[in-house]
Amino acid sequence: MINKAGTASRVGRPKSDSKHAAIMRAATGCFMSVGYERTSMDAIASAAGVSKQTVYSHFANKDELFRECILRKVRLYGLDMKSFRADEPLEQVLTTTGRRFLDLLCDPDVVSMYRLLIGETTAFPKLATSFWETGPQATMDAIAAFLVASAETQGHCIEHAQQAASDFLCLVEGHYMKRLLMRHLDDIEDAEKQQHVARCVDQFLRLHVRNPTTDPS
Questions:
Q1: With contact defined as beta carbons under 8 Å apart, do 132 and 161 qualify?
Q2: Are residues 106 and 180 in contact, defined by beta-carbon separation less than 8 angstroms?
Q3: Residue closest to 160 by CA, chosen among 217, 208, 203
Q4: pLDDT tens digits for range 65-115
Q5: Secondary structure of the chain: what % helix, strand, coil (to 5)?
Q6: How far is the C-alpha of 35 from the C-alpha of 38, rounded, in Å?
């Protein structure tokens, strides 16, 4: 089989987890330091200490590698599909999710990625699509799926789960992302995070959640 690098690769050969991790670290560093456009697969291979053929054996192209860098952050902060359980109390899950989302927004790599996108999406509009689909959209989809499953499991009613998930993330993000991007803020104090998320969860529950047994409307 011929890969994107134009060289033959061995079908079925197991991929090294350590090399995969090294490639991910190298790619993240390259994207953050010189941007998407100036990052090459050769540079990533060199930074990871592997051959370019090895990079292509793990990732078909630079866009796939960029997507995986974003998705890795989503997983790291427990905002992917596997992180939600429908049998856990809704308020508890929303509180945990809101806190994780704020922690994600304050991650220096995430802030740098947003700045990178602002600078490069005019020339590379697909970059914004890749980021949106694997980052914010993936998180929104995971929360929406949880809301549907939670309603079915616990008996409350949540209409328009996708919009509800979007509303929740927007509530939590508040004005923090703008301040982080402008370097007006470097981090958020834990006490402020806790109070802010508690307010957001309360607003979300009052706006979107109805218990048919106590609220016949």
A1: no
A2: yes
A3: 208
A4: 999 999 999 999 999 999 999 999 999 999 999 999 999 999 999 998 898
A5: 70, 5, 25
A6: 6
pLDDT in tens, 158-168: 999 999 999 99
Q: Are 158 and 164 in contact (CB under 8 A)?
A: yes
User: CB of 141 within 8 A of CB of 169?
Assistant: no
- C-alpha distances out from residue 9 to 4, 20, 186, 197, Å: 10, 16, 45, 49
Residue 8: phi and psi, rounded to 5, are -75, 140
Q: How far apart are CA 60 and CA 105, in angstroms?
A: 28
The answer to whether 47 and 72 are in contact (CB under 8 A) is no
- pTM comes to 0.85
CA angle 158, 159, 162 (to 5 degrees): 100
